[in-house]
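Blinded run. Sample ID left blank on purpose so nobody reads anything into the name before looking at the predicted structure. Input follows.
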Amino acid sequence: VKPFPIVSTRIVVLVAVVLPWLAASAVADDALPSVHHDLQVRLAPATHGIEVEDRVRLARPEGAATGGIVFRLHEGLAVRSLDPAVELLREPAVKGARPQHPPLSTWIARRRDASPWPAEASLHLAYAGVIHHPPKAEGEEYARSFARTVGTIGEEGTVLTRATWWVPAFGESTLTFRLTCAVPEGWDCVSQGERTTHETKDGHRLTTWDCPHPMEEVYLIANRFHEYSRPAGKARAYAFLRDEDPNLAARYLEATAQYLDMYGRLIGPYPFGKFALVENFWETGYGMPSFTLLGSQVIRFPFILHSSSPHEILHNWWGNSVYVDWATGNWCEGLTAYMADHLIQEQRGRGEEYRRGSLQKYRNYVKEGRDFPLSEFRSRHSAATEAVGYGKALMGFHMLRRKLGDDGFREVMVRFYRAHRGKRASFE
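Blinded prediction complete.
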């Protein structure tokens, strides 16, 4: 199979004739979320503390018909209702939904007059506490493993995700949000969406991130950052670095602009208003909607700029815009590896070598009894799961491309993105 004719030796400059269907206009997010959070957050890194005020709007909330709206939150956060017409009942703490999650508290919000909730309900909550789960190394020896945490606030930095349960969780619905965060002067914060305010006031940095796109969770990253940015088509590229390094920032900003252009032409319009490289205080390689969180050593490896970086950028189409239907298997890692890691090598004339390496990993690590169907892959936690979920899936997509041809494969990807943006999609 000939390589996709889309990039030159500069990696990301288009050289092919762009077919008319590649110029598709942006599509609306038609999978409307049923939850919106308006969050006012104050972080106290020195004491691992957090204070939050959250105005929540819910459409058809679960439990409303029987009088109680149920949500879950980190056990270390004490909650109260700021609406005198609403009372909160706390159930005993339970073990996290997954082993890596902290203990959770289940709360039930009831109207004091015992009347049922309307179809469009609202809650006004305040909660505060301590979140401190320092990163710990994974137990299994695995070449690509990182230390992990469910979330932490501290002098080294702050990383809060869905695994932290720091935002009230109402079932599995997607959500939108507006997040205003106050951090100590000299600090800054990053989340999804567009930054609409950014000012220093009364010894604190105040930043607001508006996110109208349906999301699966709310991220909050905070640290002492040096900010760099430049236009990237209709979006803006950012680099948030812990130390001043304009040369490093310039390289990432240029590459980001090129990759956003490349994938926008190949698949469809970039779904967000920004893409940011955010430096983490421990070694990570995560792709979030509209930004990536990479460790200090990772971002300074010269090969990362054209390996992990395009991989995480492409996740904004696969995984962070078209979501994974986890019950039926994680397809997005294999597809992202195929259209990022493999594609870059293919344009350098090393596609066959890359595929052979994937097959060798499969042969080396997937011993008898360790293979499993792609529909059972969720995430990598060992060399064997990576060889299946990334390598075996990658080869599956390569087989599909051989069957359809280059133009047919690209057209399928465009249609898939257009039809499922803002929704969960299965392998089928």
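Unblinding after everyone has recorded impressions. Residues 1-32 have pLDDT under 50 and may be disordered.
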